[in-house]
Amino acid sequence: MIKDLFEFIPWKESRAHLQDFADRMCSTVTVIILFIFSTLVAYKTYFISPMECFSTDAPNIQNLDKYITSYCWVEGTVDLAADKRTPTDNEWDTMKLKSINYYPWIPIILGIQCAFFYLPNLIWREYCFYKGGTDLQNLIEMSLNASKASMNERPSMIKDISSLIENLFHLHRENRHGLIPEVRRIVFKKMPLLIWGKRSGNAILGMYMVIKLLFIGISIFQCFFMVKVLQLDNSFMSVFYDVFGHIFHGIDWRATKYFPRVGYCRLTGMRSVGVINNKYVAQCVLPINILNEKIFIFLFLWMFMLIILSLIYFLSWIHIICCQPPKIRMIKLYLKGKNIFSKVEEPLIDKFINEFIRLDGIFLLKMIRINVGDVVTAGVVEQLWSLYKSKYRYVDFSCMESSDQKENLTLRLEPGEQKISTKSKIHTPSAPSKDSFL
């Protein structure tokens, strides 16, 4: 049973993944941390006594201390300074409104946090499984296998990867007819960031950015969630000031009153002979809070780190999406490294990026580089560049002909020759006249 529970966490997750460092910190590392914390607190809470209560006013009855402990655990405790007098009945009723009764729910709270962080990963994996056009995870695993293959086997494996990517790009071309597709073409040409979808070549990256926003939103939500559940101050900054300020200045943690080690509760309604309503005040020791305080101090710091890290990587992707130079530099780097790029072909780089591989291609190439490094990525770029020059170099992807028509109208011209539009008709050359030989 325990083995089945641990299989829920991706301990031995494949090295191949479609995530960057920030995503893995959120979807894998954070999930593992929260799962471990939830398991530890659940063991301490439900299998070992989480608190001990004792009342000097209660009669000496067998097992009464256990009953008092269970009663206070369920009803909650109030924080009361040791040098203050015992509150009156009215004061107890007022303090009861601020009683601390979330201790039994800590394992469940941590489990909910764990599920929240795992949810975007499930959505992303479901999308990568054929909903992006093909099995994207398998594509990255093919790249990983190519990086481990021998020098004789690697070229053919890289060729297979490039062919799969080419087919994916080819199937996602905008080849539909009608008013709406034409409007989409016009808008995409003027403002490409307003149109997202498979036909626009940015659906995979768009979905990936949504998942990144989910991770950022969940991290922020978790901070406020812990503040609310743990009954801390409504101001988020006050949590940092009170909790971390006390720690850094060496002040006793109990002064913050967020995780008190000692609490008090009042038992009412206990009947005995001749007395209808007995009232007893019990003092409770909460050793579970020693563990809870360390866990939630770490989680506040961890969530803050996740927010900063996720924002940095999110902005870096925004920079790649909005700016052309980063994409051009990446492609040029690999083409020059393979010695297959010349200045004569430099004007083709923009067309190669914007019309052939597009944003989804840039995303896949970066994921291949993240997983297997530059060697395999350079080989894939080389193959895609060769395929582009041989099959798509003079194809006008903005026209309304179908993909088959575009392929049939493609002319193999040498660098520097005049481009022939795919919209123009191809006439069968007539027989040469007698004067042409003179």
From TrEMBL:
GO MF, one annotated term: gap junction channel activity
Membrane topology: Multi-pass membrane protein
Renumbered residue ranges of the record's region Disordered: 417-438
Location of this chain's protein in the cell: Cell membrane
Keywords associated with the record: Cell membrane, Ion channel, Ion transport, Membrane, Transmembrane, Transmembrane helix, Transport
Primary localization: membrane
Domain of life according to the entry: Eukaryota
Segments passing through the bilayer: 21-43, 102-124, 205-227, 295-322
One GO cellular component, as annotated: plasma membrane
Swiss-Prot/TrEMBL GO biological process terms: monoatomic ion transmembrane transport
Family as reported in the entry's similarity comment: Belongs to the pannexin family.
The protein's role, per its UniProt record: Structural component of the gap junctions.
Record PANTHER family: INNEXIN (PTHR11893), INNEXIN-5 (PTHR11893:SF36)
Name of the protein in its database record: Innexin
Protein species of origin: Dugesia japonica
